[in-house]
Amino acid sequence: AVTNRNATMSTTTEPENPRICALFDVDGTLTIPRGEVTPDMMDFMKSLSKKITVGIVGGSDLPKQEEQLGVGIAKVFPYNFSQNGLVAYKNGDLLEIQTISKHLGEDNVKRLVNWVMKYLADLDIPVKRGTFVEFRSGMFNISPIGRNCSREERNDYEKFDLEHNIRKNMVAAMKEEFKDLNLTYSIGGQISFDVFPAGWDKTYSLRFLEEGDFDEVHFFGDKTFEGGNDFEIFTHERTKGHTVTSPEDTKEQCTKLFMS
Is 249 a catalytic site residue? Predict the structure, then answer.
């Protein structure tokens, strides 16, 4: 695994065009989905970093990002954002760590968890297992069947959920109950949905790029369609969005745009 491979510090000299910034998604953009970056791709990114200001913006946490891009990745490029920017580094220094408990306050966290447990206790579905609420630093992940279900139970639940709108109805009820908290609900995968503060998608990272410092901010990602986790930053007024299909495609597009 990559964990013993260290991502070495990129040269700290200023790039040729520091006022052009390019932000890169990780999965499907710099690596194959859930894979590790190739040495060739990392070399390319370091060359690119001599031309323009480079930043990484990934949805997973930093340990997961390090598994894919190498230990110490937060210090390699001028900007590094994990969990969409809830953990933010600039020039190797930690700028901020934001968490959902800090943002909402413990009383609201408790209120939400209590409500979810009561709702699920009264919900009649064919199978229930365990881990119905998973508390993550940037979101709640809520699963009516419970995340401990088997692969087969997961597949059966997905069919049941589609037929009976279990998650859809629960989200609608939560939107009503917690409208004062300004939360976003995202139904993804087979068995669960995510709940997080509005604006905590990848656009969160843009608050760390001073508008006066850059003439252009480019974003490269693969899930740029509506509902994909790159969509909001891809369509944001501050960015020039580029859809890529693989690391090779990223390299090709960046070479044309910035290296010629």
Answer: no
